[in-house]
Amino acid sequence: MEEKKLKVLVVGGGGREHALVWKIAQSPLVEKIYCAPGNAGIGKIAHCISIGVTDLEGLSRFAEDHRIDLTVVGPELPLTLGIVDAFESRGLRTFGASQKASEIEGSKVFCKDLLKRYGIPSAAYEVFQERDEAAAYICTREGPTVVKADGLAAGKGVIVAQTQREALEALDRIMMAKEFGSAGDRVVIEECLTGEEASFLAFTDGETVLPMASSQDHKRIFDDDQGPNTGGMGAYSPAPVVDEKVHGRIVEGIMIPVIRGMAAEGRPYRGVLYAGLMISDGEPYVLEFNARFGDPEVQPILIRMKSDIVPILAACINGTLENMEIEWDRREAVCVVMSSPGYPGAYPKGYVIEGLEAAASMDDVVVFHAGTEMKGEKILTSGGRVLGVTALGQGISEAIERGYRAVEKIRWEGVHYRRDIGKRALDRLGG
Ligand code: AMP
Fold first, then answer.
1. Confidence of residue 1 (pLDDT cuts 50, 70, 90)
2. Which of 30, 63, 69, 239 is the most exposed, having the fewest neighbouring CB atoms within 10 Å of its CB?
3. Would you say the CB of residue 276 lies under 6 angstroms from ligand 1?
4. DSSP letters of 86-138?
């Protein structure tokens, strides 16, 4: 690998993929990076190609024709559609979970049953295929209940209901109105856990688990965790709730047993395993697994990663992760997501973004693009989440202060962002 420089393809076009392309571009092992479909920010450091993330045939033909040495898959949808299997069947080296492995994210029922089989801590639950049986069960429960559509629903298929009535309404949205389509053919109804959430991402080659720095995201649209869930409005790394003891329990009690369990069940897991966790009195419980890098968590994580990411991605594919280590910047990082007015509902597109250069030229700040596109010389909004402004700082408060200084340089009509990203970490650390 040291001899020949690599051609890399990154699949996706959001903030996660911009962060991946930005990190991969720093590798001395890489000659050229393509991104499908990419965005305006990615276009400045990679060659964007307009192939959609679900066009597996088009993508694999492109990779073959351009002799791509390494493909890195960002979003969950192509993973669950089997992009890694399709690429591997053509002899293309691909970083990501196979279709059978990514079921851990694609089906919440599969995930919960797996956790139960291996005795991994998670909320108590029941699964229903019939709306009336689910409704009858909800009526036996007291207090908050969590109702989850089984399949992929862009992070919106989970409803934390405070009352029976809210839980029944959620059930009807999922199973009757079919708001999430066939993802709602089955529901998981589970106990509501309390505590503090954290995200824990790890690289794995199917045997070895190599953790990334811990992180925490902010899912709700408004400050103080108000309003509906989004894809994520900001994140920071590390998450102080994941202290050394909790870290050990996550690795030994959750990540390693899951990787072993998946291998034992004929679903060897290679790629990134992302655990969404609730830390309750120092004990981690699994809320969900994702089969890919978290967005926006990956943005503060990768800005802190000092090691070259390319040998790690390759080791996950080769089964040689055992010998790898990751060096982390000891500083803290914060990512503030700037979104379109109306998001996570309907939103307008095409507003001119101003102030990008002033923000991006600040030291220890990277402005990752999500929903942006170039029109002539201008950069326009083109998605719900538009930018992930990411900053490093000596301590979380410096990272927050620097991140928001960069955010304030950027404007477009109706821009929205939360003003309290990182506040939970500050509170925990005592300000
Ligand atoms: P998920 O997609 O399963 O991670 O759920 C999305 C969000 O819903 C999580 O980040 C939590 O905030 C919340 N959530 C999911 N399951 C539970 C649970 N059992 N108890 C409390 N909150 C939950």
1. very low
2. 30
3. yes
4. HHHHTT--EES--TTTTHHHH-HHHHHHHHHHTT--B--EEEESSHHHHHHHH
Strand partners, 220: 229
Q: Report yes or no: 213 and 289 within 8 Å, Cβ to Cβ.
A: no
User: Which tokens belong to 130?
Assistant: 């019939």
Residue nearest to atom 5 of ligand 1 (CA): 158
CA distances to 111, 256, 264 from 117, rounded to whole Å, are: 10, 14, 12
Q: What is the pLDDT of residues 394-418, one digit of tens each?
A: 999 999 999 999 999 999 999 999 9
Tell whether ligand 1 has an atom less than 6 A from the beta carbon of residue 193. yes
Supply the pTM of this predicted model: 0.95
- Residue 355 is encoded by which pair of tokens? 């102030």
Does ligand 1 lie within 6 Å of residue 217's CB atom?
A: no
Closest among 257, 283, 281 to 273, alpha carbons compared: 257
Residue 40 tokens read as: 């305006």
CA of 270 to the centre of ligand 1 (A): 25
What's the gap in Å between 287 CA and the centre of ligand 1? 5
Whether ligand 1 lies within 6 angstroms of the CB of 123 is answered as yes
Structure confidence by residue, pLDDT tens digits, 371-385: 999 999 999 999 999
Give the closest residue (by CA) to ligand 1 atom 16.
287
Nearest CA to ligand 1 atom 3: 288
What would the two tokens of residue 109 be? 């029922």
State the distance from the centre of ligand 1 to the C-alpha of 394, rounded, in angstroms. Answer: 31
Ligand 1 pocket residue status of 170, Cβ below 6 Å: no
**Cβ(420)–Cβ(223) under 8 Å?**
yes
User: Does ligand 1 have an atom closer than 6 angstroms to the CB of 154?
Assistant: no
pLDDT per position as a tens digit, 302-319:
999 999 999 999 999 999
Distance separating alpha carbons of residues 381 and 67, to the nearest angstrom? 33
> Could you give the C-alpha distances from 262 to 82, 290, 373, in angstroms and in order?
17, 14, 39
DSSP 216-228: EE--EEEGGGEEE
Strand partners, 29: none
Task: Give the pLDDT confidence score for residue 374 in this predicted structure.
Answer: 95
Least confident of 183-197, 342-356, 416-430: 416-430
